[in-house]
Amino acid sequence: MKITISIIKADVGSVGGHEIPSKRLIETIENHVKKEGKRLLLDYKIFHTGDDTGILMSHIHGVNYSDIHKLAFDAFVAGTEVAKEQGLYGAGQDILKNAFSGNVRGMGPGSCEMEFEERPAEPFVLFACDKTDPGAFNYPLFRGFADPFHNAGLLLASDMAKGFEFTVMDVNYTKGDRVITLKVPEEYYDLAVLLRDPEHFVIESISSRATGDIASVVSTSRLHNIAGKYTGKDDPVAIVRTQKQFPSTGELLSPYATAHFVAGGDRGSHIVALMPCKLGAIISFFDGPAIVTAAGMCVHNGIFTEAIDLFDQPFWDTIRDKASEKTYGIREQGFFGAAMAPMEELEYTGVVERIKQLDSKFSIRRSDK
Ligand code: F6R
Ligand code: MG
Ligand code: MG
């Protein structure tokens, strides 16, 4: 059966700062999807990671189907009403436009979708991050798909021997979606030089070169540029199909053991280690650290199984400790050098404005004195 899986997510309000959506907000979003999505959806699930709520949907309408996007958009609008009633922080933050115009892209919510013919067994993982941006997935997806140190299947299994094709977006280009497609292993180094700069070049999708099957999609967009100013980090989600012609679930989780440094954390403006957390995790230290959750599921005839919590396993306790130590390590140097995000990634204008004011006070010392 050919199905589409869509995940559309947004931060429309949270309790105690930008920590976690309220129960009522989540219920409101769920009730809306349940009622209005009856004829449209095969199945759905509601997730939340940090202050972001995600609506995972299966259907037969393909990607960019307007009614699916409207369903999610209206659910977030309904959630916004509750957020306002409850006085939640950031109520309606990711609803940048009021009038729905056919697709949530550019309207605030993040989204990614994939259409595929279901395999007899169809395992996949829904990754969701908070307090960081889509470039956070560059490192784990690059290593999970292209590096035999993590994806041993590249060496051991014949299904993946031809490698993968990566589509990467230049998110700094604002006039349209500027993308490039690169094949690994042949163009491995070309891909590496782009992905090393995760605030500029961001993985959008990955597909199998052996079968052409879509393997992964990320909610990569030019959002923070389209909006003209930051309204919060465009906290990303990704769907990754696993096993057989794709890396195994464990191979895809493996790179998260690095707890790699990402831009995010407090005021979306710092460098912190990405901490793999349990589903439903909240935000705490230094408005962070940046977190990632992983929900493992199977889908059959468009019906989802229950989700298992892939980071809820003793191995990841050690990695959480490591992530805390790495984050605390860099936090100790405050705002100096590498500890604060690059100028163009700062969510606030304070630094830039202050430098502008100081500009006129600079003088050029005469060299003959
Ligand atoms: C992401 C997130 C942060 C905030 C940023 C600014 O979910 O919440 O990136 O957008 O910390 O938040 P304010 O200015 O609302 O304190
Ligand atoms: Mg937020
Ligand atoms: Mg968020």
From TrEMBL:
Q: Recorded GO terms, molecular function?
A: fructose 1,6-bisphosphate 1-phosphatase activity; fructose-bisphosphate aldolase activity; magnesium ion binding
Keyword vocabulary terms for this entry: Carbohydrate metabolism, Gluconeogenesis, Hydrolase, Lyase, Magnesium, Metal-binding, Schiff base
> Which residues make up the binding site for Mg(2+) 3?
233-235
Residues holding beta-D-fructose 1,6-bisphosphate = 18, 89, 102-103, 131, 243-244, 267, 287, 348
Coiled-coil segments on the chain, per record:
none
Q: What is its EC number?
A: 3.1.3.11, 4.1.2.13
Please tell me where Mg(2+) 1 binds in this chain. Answer: 11, 18, 51, 93
- Describe, as the record does, how this protein assembles with itself and its partners: Homooctamer; dimer of tetramers.
Q: What is this protein called?
A: Fructose-1,6-bisphosphate aldolase/phosphatase
